[in-house]
Amino acid sequence: MSGRDPDGLELAERVLRHAEALGATQAEVLVGETESRLTRFANSEIHQNVAESNTMVNLRFVDGRRVGCASTNRTDDGALRRLADSAARIARLMPEADEAVHLPGPAPIAYVHGAASVATADATPEFRAAAAREVIAAADAAGVQAYGSFTTDLEHVALANSLGVRAQEARTWSQLLTVAMGSAGEAGYAEAAAVDCTSIDAGAVGREAAEKARSARQPVSVPPGDYPVVLEPYAVVDLLDMLGYLGISGLAVQEGRSFFEPGKVVGSPLVTIVDDAGDVAGAPVSFDYEGVPKRRVPLIEAGVCREAVYDAQTAARAGRESTGHGLPAPNPYGPFPLNMVMHAGDASRDELIGGLDRGLLVTRFHYTNPVHPKLVIVTGMTRDGTFLVEHGRVVGPVRNLRFTQSYLDALAGVQAVGRERRLLRGFLGASLVPALRIGAFTFTGATEH
Amino acid sequence: MPDLTDRALDTAVQRGATFADVRQTRRAEESIAIKSGRVEGVAFGESEGFGVRVLVDGAWGFASSNRLTVAEADRVAAEAVRIARASATALRHRVQLDERPPARGTYRTPVLEDPFDLSVERKVGDLLAADEAMRRVPGIGFTEVRYDAQREWKTYAASDGSLVEQEITHVGAVIEANAVNGDDMQRRSYPDSAQAAGWEWVRGLDLAGNGERVAGEAMALLAAPQCPPMRTTVILHPSQLYMQIHESCGHPCELDRVFGTEASYAGTSFLTPDGLGTFRYGSELIDIVADATAPGGLGTFGWDDEGVAAQRVPLIEAGRHVGYLTSRETAPRIGRQSGGAMRADGWNRIPLIRMTNINLLPRPGMSFDDIVADTDDGLLLATNRSWSIDDRRLNFQFATEMGWQVKGGKIGQLYKNPTYTGITYEFWGSCDAVADERSYTLFGTPNCGKGEPGQNGHVGHGASGARFRDVQVGVGKW
Lengths: 449, 478
Fold this sequence. Notes:
The structure holds 2 protein chains of 2 kinds.
Chain A: H1 8-21, E1 26-42, E2 45-63, E3 66-72, H2 77-93, H3 118-121, H4 125-142, E4 145-161, E5 166-181, E6 187-194, H5 202-215, E7 225-231, H6 233-246, H7 250-254, E8 273-275, E9 297-301, E10 304-305, H8 312-318, E11 340-342, H9 349-354, E12 358-372, E13 377-390, E14 393-397, E15 401-406, H10 407-412, E16 414-425, E17 430-446
Parallel strand pairs in A: 7-12
Antiparallel strand pairs in A: 1-2, 1-4, 2-3, 4-5, 5-6, 7-17, 8-9, 8-11, 9-10, 12-13, 13-14, 13-15, 15-17, 16-17
Helix pairs in contact in A: 1-2, 4-5
Chain B: H1 2-14, E1 19-35, E2 38-56, E3 59-65, H2 70-87, E4 104-108, H3 120-135, E5 142-158, E6 163-181, E7 184-195, H4 199-205, H5 207-223, E8 230-236, H6 238-250, H7 255-258, E9 288-291, E10 312-317, E11 320-321, E12 342-343, E13 352-353, E14 358-360, H8 368-373, E15 377-389, E16 395-407, E17 410-415, E18 419-423, H9 424-429, E19 431-434, E20 441-450, E21 455-463, E22 466-473
Parallel strand pairs in B: 4-6, 8-15
Antiparallel strand pairs in B: 1-2, 1-5, 2-3, 5-6, 6-7, 8-22, 9-10, 9-14, 10-11, 12-13, 15-16, 16-17, 16-18, 18-22, 19-22, 20-21
Helix pairs in contact in B: 1-2, 3-5
């Protein structure tokens, strides 16, 4: 696998020794070595094309009940010693905390297969440019223009702590997304993501977006109001991300800002969501950023809240074990479910749409933001393909609408779940999501396109 | 390190680049997070590296690395050229840059109290005092205090002979009180802003002195009635107006977005070049500038990240759209010179067109209080809570932390969960009062997202407050 030698664990152990020499009672070192590449296209030509090589070293230095954190991307020994000095100095200037610091102890890690792909790690600019040309060719054939990006990333993650945790893993990620847009602004969207970039069919992604853009020509206005909807997976991923971000976190629960209570009914019986970093159909990961093995966590089962996710500190407060959802320290935001998987249903896409007497088919959401975090009321826009459905058939495109909607109410209103799922990256992580039919969705405004 | 930048430029040119520039950047960051009296995290981070941007056969390539060696400069420059050649296989228009004299010089943010020299102990102590002040209010759920400082040392060099060195320092802070009751949660914060300055700016905020007020207002919100749906007059306090400017003027004035190069991520813009100079964006009271020279602004610098000197560019004059945020590549396409708005989020990112300080100019005549006193019936909205706008920057919706009824020129009933929505040019067209300089405040937004891979921008917004007629408020089901 190309990129730098995976010497992250050796680097982590070196920093650990520096920290211990400075008197750390506990210490944790996280090393991330990345080779990130992205080719971006717009107006059917490549306009940005970038590459990055970097190594980040992050130290959590514990002195009794005091903690200091420091990070650097310099890996010479002098820089690593300064890193330890900085973290130690911060820790010793801290007031003593009321609660003990809980770094996790060692636990056997069952390494997942398929976390990394040699093809993605070795992907060249010529490979990404060829994929961009395929997407552009599909747009040309449909008489629209292509906009999008193709990412191929490699990351070696290594972690060592003074309690004996040792973990390292190579991870790759690739994602091709495109918006096809016509001369009047009609647009369609498509995306594919995979650990192995060679499994992405660029032509198919391009054709899906281009066909949708063609079918979105000459939209009509529909008045805002309550409509039943079919949400494509590109929209559903936002539902999961917002729920995960605002509520399905041990810290959010502990601070009283979450809707999440084990046993509470929040969704239709058709809704089951787990966090499963071991699912090879997703983006597999073996351990979190504290070196804790990832555990499969049932978040919502048949509409009922089951279990939130925890890192070492929030787990200790709750008197339980970490679920393997820690993020790099310091982390005031808490643990998050980064590998959500929504169970598939049995409906085809046509059956989902066929169940709408009069409703909307929504391709994608845009710029969503919480209006009330605890009620998970979110506002956002539709974009890149919104269609009116009557008597179970798509009758034509409509101008984009603004929604202001409780995502909890949306979850409760799920009437049918698609049987096909897509691996998509939202703002929180990599999720495996189906399309949904929802009984009512509140649209509160309209725009001009 | 001139050896490294010179070597990267030489290698790029030798391998076929017709233009190359290199930015070597070192960034130091310090963050302090306090939650409900507990120091949740104190961190110091540094990141250093260089990025080489090249034009080959009319196409762009960029590569970057954290390894500061001459050998790595050769490798990265060669990789940038190879990437540019790959770009050229899907190119329909060769990139043309505007002409500008080589940039030479230095710039440094004026700082009175260096935030990196001040002891962590002192800073944590001041922030804990603010947290404690909030927690003195009975019933408060949880509190947060966050502080961030960032300093960048940047060297920019280009194949045209440009060489610029800059040292830019930003600090930001917020205190936040959250009141919780059952399914309801209300947040009140102050000031959630940032500045190009030192610790003196944080000290001047008097966070501890505002702690009890902020927490008391959070508790008051919990008991307040829901903001009713209606069409009414809205007065936006500067603490909300800055975000309205950010989303509905700053972003749509980015010329790269206008030309579609952000379409796949953040979208495009309704401010198309055919309306430049004529499009009625707002009422005649609206004058908005992009000012990279404004003292203290997060968008203030000496030169942008392609060596164009900082300047003040009119965007909206007397309500008409007259200008854009531009780059050396985009400006010639509308027959202009770059306005110097290309900024990169560190050594490992290309510069993109970003906001500088997008300021709504105050108007002599009425103070903010005069505007309130002049309003018979309306709503006063303060402190942004959430924001959303469509992919052409037309349909927006904002929520604020506080909303007060205004009746007969007096501030009355407090409402919770206030929201308002509209269409950008209709909203700005309905503005019939802009406050004078007495309430003018320069806000800092240190979390403006743009680009793929993602970049975080630090931008500034000056606002004094303004009044808008016939606005839809109280959106959604509650």
